[in-house]
Design goal:
Length: about 350
């Protein structure tokens, strides 16, 4: 039966290698298997593909030319990424994950810097890239790496959804990425992992300096915030940010349960257009009446872990949360095991 969308988790005995070593020892067998699968459906070409990274280079050229969405998990050998630049001429959505391998981060960002006009139709970009190793130069390595991404981002005038889902040291280190956001005129959906790993970074959050980077046009926002020694940088800056996001309909804030940045009801009251709020692992639908703002009871475990597009309100919100469900599952498991402690 023809299909247009394929998501493969691997490993599979016949289709995919059981390990990277298996791939190295038997590259032709696995390349042939994947190519055969694609060729079987040449009359109904794939447009949506998500696969493990060590199989990415087996995708036939004819398949690449039809892809609209490409997801590569645990990417490796990203020095070959120019194959995608040359062949993915219709690509609108790209998701690359290489957590745990800083060398792949540098390779990818260097390639993007050298090919800023690649993927000119891109509307959705999700990157989960390992940070450079810690250094003693004030974060220069991280800043330099992120600066490589800037030309690529600035050329993506159609980009509507951006998700940066890997913490890179402090907010200060992420200035090159944050500073690019205001130059993306279509940006509506944003996800950020932020770390306040020293007092200066915490002060940026407390003072509201972060707020100047967040576009006012957002309709959906995901914030994962880690703060110094687990102490919340308490201030009204987050409420001020949300008050200024007058079109924001969806928010996921992941902070510390013992020392939260804000309470759920306060978040809903600050964001005047908010319809759906996820605070850590609890989803609340927001009700607004003449009597004020209230929250519906949290979603059930099943609905929180396996929501539909309709549950979240639209496909872009579902896209934003994709890749983060395991965080919610882990928190729900811990809460169940410990009686609410995090």
């Amino acid at each position: 039966m023809p299909f247009r969308s394929l998501t493969l988790q691997g490993p599979y005995r016949f289709l995919f290698p059981t390990s990277k070593d298996d791939l190295l020892l038997n590259p032709e067998r696995h390349k042939y298997s994947l190519s055969t699968l694609m060729d079987m459906h040449a009359g109904s070409p794939l447009t949506h593909l998500e696969i493990p990274g060590y199989t990415a280079w087996s995708i036939p050229q004819a398949t690449l030319q039809h892809l609209v969405h490409l997801g590569i998990r645990q990417a490796s050998n990203l020095d070959k990424v120019t194959v995608f630049f040359e062949n993915c001429v219709r690509l609108e959505s790209l998701w690359i994950s290489s957590e745990g391998d800083p060398s792949q981060t540098s390779v990818l960002l260097t390639a993007l810097a050298a090919n800023p006009e690649a993927f000119r139709h891109l509307t959705h970009l999700k990157l989960a890239l390992a940070a450079p190793p810690d250094d003693d130069d004030g974060g220069t390595a991280a800043i330099n790496e992120l600066q490589k991404l800037t030309p690529f981002l600035l050329s993506k005038k159609k980009l509507r959804c951006l998700d940066w889902s890997e913490p890179w040291g402090s907010i200060e280190f992420m200035r090159p990425l944050l500073g690019s956001l205001s130059s993306l005129p279509q940006l509506e959906v944003l996800g950020l992992d932020l770390t306040c790993d020293h007092d200066d970074a915490a002060e940026m959050l407390k003072s509201g300096m972060l707020n100047q980077y967040i576009p006012k046009s957002l309709t959906a926002l995901r914030l994962w915030v880690d703060y110094f020694d687990g102490r919340a940088p308490i201030s009204n800056s987050l409420n001020t940010l949300l008050t200024g996001l007058t079109q924001l309909a969806f928010l996921w804030l992941d902070d510390y349960i013992r020392d939260p940045l804000a309470e759920p009801l306060t978040l809903a009251q600050s964001a005047s257009s908010l319809q759906l709020l996820c605070h850590r692992d609890d989803f609340y639908e927001v009700l607004r009446t003449d009597a004020g703002v209230t929250l519906e009871p949290p979603w059930s475990f099943t609905k929180a872990v396996f929501p539909s597009v309709d549950d979240l309100g639209c496909a872009d919100r579902y896209w934003l949360m994709n890749g983060h469900w395991e965080v919610i599952r882990d928190q729900l498991r811990r809460r169940g095991d410990t009686g609410g402690e995090d």
